Amino acid sequence: MKEAMYFAETEMSKAIKLLGQLGKKAVILAGGTDLVPKINYYKLQPEVLVYIGKLGLDYIQEKNRKLIIGAATSMAKIAASKLVAKKAGALAEAARQAGTAAIRTAATIGGNLANASPAADLATPLLAMDAELLLRSGKGKRVVALKDFFRRPGQTVLRPGELIVEVSIPPPAGRTVFLKLGRRKALTLSVVNVAVRLEMDGHKCQDVRIAMGSVAPTPLRCTRAERLLKGQEVDKALIAQCAAEALAACQPVDDQRATAWYRRQAGTVLVARALAQAAGLAEK
Amino acid sequence: MKYTLSFILNGLPADVLVKPSDTLLDVLREKLGIVSPKRGCDTGDCGACTVLLDGEPVRACLTIALTVAGKAVETVEGLSKDGKLHPLQQSFHEHYAAQCGFCTPGMLMSAKALLDKNPQPTREEIVEAISGNLCRCGAYQEIVEAVAAVASGRRKEKGQ
User: Which of A11, A109, A157, B9 is 20 to 30 A away from residue A117, measured at CA?
Assistant: First the structure.
């Protein structure tokens, strides 16, 4: 077997050059929480590990009213950030509920997205907030909307040699809510997760985003359900209709965590509950 | 290829030759004789390998060893001082918080991470802090009580 190699560059330009040279041989390592189990069980035998934890991509800041989060920022830091809590409440909530303390210390926002799990907990709130990703490779930079980022489980539009640099979230409008249903409270992957962003004008819905995870090959936006709500008076009947419509867009599967049938039932409840919470309607 | 990894282990410098795919757990257990972190699942689910990295809890089995270069790793081996148990260890002992003992090192390190930051946590905060540590014997009640006893200061006079 070939001996594996390891690089931990401290300069972005060097890391990008290295990734460009290595192409498909390079396996990018950040927190390792999704990657290392694959290495431990020989599902993945990287020729070259490129560690990006020393590139200074660990930051949360506000720039031009946008919230900018470095790709190697840990879930623990996101969960504890007052700025994230203020600007992107649903993201803070998703980070708080993800894994457990020892996972959140290591797991990063960029890794959660690049791993492209259908159940990625940070993906749903970021979809609901129209997040964009700044990608960088030897060929330069490009910006990809998160809704165009995922292809299928484990597959994204990232090209060989390309790195997620940061996540950018537009100034928030309206309230955001994240709800997750797992098999238990801690250290569990989502059976279903839902994030909504709802902007109200009195009782009318000005704008809305509904995103769901673990109900399709990728985290997804439920645009048809969003259209039902937009411009309408929000009440419980409309929310119920909208939740049913959101689930029509899903293609859940049976797996060890839940059946497809259960995911539909639970997902409908979760979408309705999230919308009601965001609209300030008591829903029990 | 093998690389020299230098880091601080329980307050002392450690140097060891490692492969890129070696995890911190591999290196601690198999090369440095630090066997308190246990290999339960190798996927991050059980928590038995929890250690502190620069004071924060991490899974040793999910940590590529080379990424801890220059950082400080703490394990149960570093808890007792001058032959005296750490207050958490003493309290676990007194509360019968270890049955088979396999989860105990991870529980201790998760609890230490909590108390170092939040010396007087609520019961809910203790439960949350050990929520990623599985105890197959079901000693959770005793473990929570042991941590709570240290937090409330009932163990302060001993061990420190």
Answer: A11
A43 token code pair: 């599902």
**Domain at B87-151, CATH homologous superfamily:** [2Fe-2S]-binding domain (1.10.150.120)
For chain A, give the mean pLDDT. 95
| Total count of domains within chain A | 3
Quick one: tokens of A11?
């300069």
Residue A193 placed within a domain: yes
| Ramachandran angles phi, psi of B30, nearest 5° | -95, -20
Secondary structure of residue B118 in the 3-state scheme: coil
Q: Environment class of residue A42 by beta-carbon count within 10 Å: exposed (0-12), middle (13-18) or buried (19+)?
A: exposed
Q: Nearest Cβ partner of B56 from A99, A105, A187?
A: A105
Q: pLDDT category, A172, cuts 50, 70, 90? A: confident
Q: pLDDT digit string (tens) for A87-106?
A: 999 999 999 999 999 999 99
Q: Is the ipTM of this complex over 0.90?
A: yes
Sheet holding A163-169, edge to edge: A60-63, A66-70, A163-169, A132-137, A140-145
CA angle A116, B23, A77 (to 5 degrees): 55
Q: How far apart are the first and last CA of chain B?
A: 43
Neighbours of A282 (CB within 10 A): 7
Phi/psi for A77 (5° steps) reads -70, -40
B104-117 helix and B140-151 helix, angle to the nearest 10 degrees: 30
Judged by a CB distance cut-off of 8 A, whether residue B131 touches chain A is: yes
Token output for A190: 């989502």
Mean per-residue pLDDT, A185-196: 91
Interface of A with B in 52-71 (CB under 8 A): 53
pLDDT above 90 covers a percentage of chain A that reads 91
A237 Cβ neighbours under 8 A, 6+ residues apart: none
pLDDT tens-place string over residues B46-98: 999 999 999 999 999 999 999 999 999 999 999 999 999 999 999 999 999 99
A99 touches chain B (CB under 8 A): yes
Query: What's the gap in Å between the CA of A165 and the closest CA on chain B?
Result: 19
Q: A49 — contact with chain B (CB < 8 Å)?
A: yes
Do residues A38 and A46 lie in contact, with contact meaning Cβ atoms separated by under 8 Å?
no
Residue with tokens 């203790």: B126
User: Which tokens sit at A254?
Assistant: 């049976």
Considering the domain boundaries, does residue A284 fall inside one?
Answer: no
